[in-house]
Structure formats: structure tokens, C-alpha cells
Amino acid sequence: MQTLSPPTSNALNLKQLIRPRPRSRPRPSVKCVYSFEPASTRADWQSSCAILASNVQQNSADNNNHNGATADHVAAVNGHKASVTDLKLVPIQNLADSNNKPLQPKPLTISDLSPAPMHGSKLRVAYQGVPGAYSEAAAGKAYPNCEAIPCDQFEVAFQAVELWIADRAVLPVENSLGGSIHRNYDLLLRHRLHIVGEVQLPVHHCLLALPGVRKEFLTRVISHPQALAQCEHTLTKLGINVAREAVDDTAGAAELVATNNLRDTAAVASARAAELYGLNVMADGIQDDPSNVTRFVMLAREPIIPRTDRPFKTSIVFAHDKGTSVLFKVLSAFAFRNISLTKIESRPHRNRPIRLVDDANVGTAKHFEYLFYVDFDASMAEVRAQNALAEVQEFTSFLRVLGSYPMDMTPWTPSSPPPSH
Question: Where does this protein reside within or beyond the cell (predicted)?
């Protein structure tokens, strides 16, 4: 399977990130090159951002002759007075496309990240992918009416929260068919964010193509590698025996087809991606297994206070200098207290990947070292969970609680079965 990367033009720099999102009617945007003196306060910064969001985005014609008023005077915000001239606003080019359609938000890249926060009335939630991705749907399920911020990499989503560009991140950690997303388990350890919740999202794949394209015209199907694998049998039943090519994500595949007018290419993605990028749904519900669910975790800069009035789950990671020999003792600490484990995952210990044991009789033995990620059904507010971790700490050289958070208890309905042909 060949790998096909989406256009790199999707990358967004920080100046584009802080521009007001373009609407259906084109209007000029602004960027702020205002620099505060060291004595400026955080309230001043918030005031200026509020001014930008509420007063500055005006039509240039309105700025020149709307009832004879000028844009030099702006009302006080949070008790702090400021003016447009003080903010040194510089007009920039119109961001709407030639058809006057609003542009979709583009994913963040590493270069977009800056410690300057952005403030708004909506909760800002970072996710990996482009609009129409399943991660965006998970963000909307976890935080309805949030402002979803697309990121081109998982690590960018972590950093967006750490640097106050976003308030939360919603990232996948496991799929019922594809297993664990190892990259995000590694990033959970590398970064200091806390798991504050989880959400489980049924995956419903569709076959998308440009309007008017028939399956006889197709020469390839593109999508995320796992999505292609999850639809392989159904695609074959549909008579689509063409090349499969991998891209970074499902919605990115739909965007690639639409942007490049690829009439010989279909994409496996969500129905929302078809709506966003103007594609036709050639086949609906093409996943081989209707029981296809992805589990996402919600990340924040601060942990939540654990409670006992509803089901909670706790995630930990631990390691030991003597390798895996203490794993049974660790698991016994939970079994003796009737605490159920819902997941256990091992990952290589990157700081000490190999442990050497010298024996004069048999030579040098080499053992792989591992970190263990464990989820268990208990809240850290419960005494039994606290006692279990106190015992685990006696056997381990490293122990960290990634989060204690409410379980996703929403009813689950499997995706519709694939069509029969």
C-alpha cells in the first residue's frame, strides 16, 4: 500500500490562527501587532483580545463613513480603556475564496504554537485531523457547542493545551478493531496533561467521490490505513477492486479528492466530510464490522476532583527497575480489593529500553524494559483505590496517575450493517 500525503498548504501559521474566522460574506480581517510593555497586566491583554473579537472586525467602508463615526474610539472592556489606534491594527487580505464560500479551519502545525493565549466565550477543544474527522465528532460529543481546533499532529494538540491555545484536547487512545493508538500513550507520559474524561464514538464509514463519478471510473480508494482495513471486505463486495492508498486521516482523504478534483479517486470517510467538501456518498455504512468503536480521552491542564456519586475510571502508568517480575504483585493489589482492570498496555521504556544482567556462569542476559499503562474501575476518592496505589508504589520505581475521571455511560448503538450485494 502506497502512502499519499495531503497538500502541505493546509498548514496554518500563528497569525492566521488568531484571525477571526471568515464568514459567508467576505469582509476584511485584521491582525494585531500590538506589543505590551513589561508592566502590562493580564487584564490588559484580555481587554485587547475582547476588543479585537467584538469591535475591530468591521467592513472598511463602514470604518470610513458609517454615520460619520471613526474606529478610533472603542468602549472600555473589563474596566480598561483602549483604542484601535493604540492597538496598531494592520489590515490583511480577504480570506474567503473566489466563490465567496467560507474556508474550513486548517490544522495547526508545530510552528503555529506560541505561548500567547487566546480567550473567547466558547470552550476551545483541540483534535488531530481536519474538519470532518471522527476526532472532530468526538470533540463535539464530549463538549457540545465547543470551538473545535484542528491540529495536523497528535503532539500539536497536546502542546496547544499546554500553551493555552486550547482549553481541552480530545484524542483517540484505542479502537475496538485496530487496538491501541500507541503514539498517544507515549505522549501521555511525555506531557503533563491530565485525563479529565472519556468518550466512545461509533465509527460509520462512507465511500465518497465527486458528484457524477461512478464506481466503474475509479482507479483507487484513499483513506487512513485503519479505515481501509476496516472496509476491505465490503469494498470487494461492491466490486471496487482497485488500488488502496493511505493518507494521514479519513477527512483529509475527502479533502484531497475535493481540492484536486480527482474524478478517478474515492475516499473512505464520514458523512460529515462529504457534506463539508461537496462529495457524493456512493455507499453508506461500508465498515465490515458494525461494532466499530473508538475511545477518546479528554485532556486538560488541571485534573478534576474525583467523586464517588457516579462511576469513575482511573488511569495510571508505572515501571520497575527489576523488569516485569513485579507485575503479578501489582495486579494482586487490585484483585485483593475487588477492583476491576479494564485495560493493561505495555510500552517500551524509552529511557532504559534494555536491562543487562551479568551472570558469571551463563554470560550476559538482555531483557527488554517496559512501562505499563493500566485503567481500573474506581475513583481516587475511594479508600480502596488509594490503598491499592499505596501498595503498588511499594513495588514500583515509577508511578504516575494520569487521571481519575467519569466513565462514558452513554447508551451505545452499533453502526448500521454494511449493505448486502
Answer: Plastid, Chloroplast stroma
